[in-house]
Design brief:
Helix content is about 50%, strand content about 20%. The chain is α+β, with helices and mostly antiparallel strands. The strands form two sheets. Strands 5-4-3-8-7-6 form a six-stranded antiparallel sheet. Strands 1-2 form a two-stranded antiparallel ribbon. The chain is elongated, with a radius of gyration of 22 Å. The N and C termini lie far apart (about 50 Å). About 30% of the residues are buried.
């Protein structure tokens, strides 16, 4: 696979700041041996994206965008570490697969999973790294349902839902109603929305600011979910999601006082 040389060179520019707090264009040129015009072009692009910031003395420092992405990476790594033992516990209790997904731009991406035991003859597998639109499936939808109302409205206005599986909700009016109910109830249920024959129940995970940062779901063949005492599954998923939230700093009592 051919590598993008511009991207590599831009990363080389950013790596210069591992050892220097601030650098001028000429200093970057001297260190990298790249043409000055190339360095200026890359620095200008990095500045536009917020990865570099120019000080009053015309020297450059790392920009706040890197801090933002660094916080996201740290938060998600911490989230997986905190969530995994509780996910294992939930899987052991229910003997179904448990998934963790986080928002990534306009989609949810699955970042951790615990598969059902091999004793289950029929299982549902979700690949880590799989992406799904916010409107489809219990886990993506519970994330969307708990976002800021303006963001939800903007998202719904920007999309045209497509049929992914037999149960995918493609009508926007129906989707809005489902999202309101999910937010009020604190959980979401899906049947054959991302994969035919698969069902899921999901609950939101919040950070210390009360912002939704992930969704936790239990997933399996739909016929087993219909046989379950579904209310019990819902309570267990919500309880586990709330416990993960607390362990990453969420405090519902504090948020109520702030409100």
């Amino acid at each position: 696979m051919t590598k993008n040389k511009v991207v590599i060179k831009s990363m080389n520019i950013l790596q210069l700041f591992e050892h220097s707090e601030a650098l001028s264009i000429n200093e970057m040129v001297t260190i990298t041996n790249l043409p000055k015009t190339s360095v200026m072009r890359m620095v200008s692009s990095l500045e536009d994206m917020g990865f570099l910031s120019k000080r009053s003395d015309r020297r450059y420092v790392l920009g706040l965008s890197l801090l933002h992405y660094g916080h996201l990476v740290a938060e998600r790594l911490d989230l997986r570490k905190v969530a995994l033992p509780l996910m294992n516990q939930l899987r052991d209790e229910m003997d179904e697969a448990v998934n963790l997904s986080v928002p990534e731009e306009e989609e949810a991406i699955y970042v951790e999973k615990v598969d059902a035991r091999a004793s289950q003859m029929v299982r549902v597998f979700t690949r880590i790294g799989r992406r799904a639109p916010f409107y489809a499936g219990a886990c993506p939808r519970i994330i969307l349902a708990n976002m800021d109302e303006d963001r939800v409205n903007a998202y719904l206005e920007s999309i045209q839902p497509v049929q992914i599986a037999s149960g995918t909700i493609t009508d926007k009016s129906q989707l809005r109603e489902v999202l309101v109910k999910c937010r009020q109830d604190g959980y979401s249920i899906s049947f054959s929305e991302l994969e035919n024959g698969a069902a899921a129940i999901a609950a939101p995970i919040f950070n210390h600011k009360g912002e939704v940062i992930a969704g936790l779901s239990i997933t399996g063949p739909d016929y087993r979910f219909r046989e379950y005492l579904v209310s019990d599954v819902i309570q267990r998923v919500m309880h586990t999601a709330a416990e993960i939230s607390k362990r990453v700093g969420w405090n519902p009592d504090t948020l109520k006082q702030m409100g």
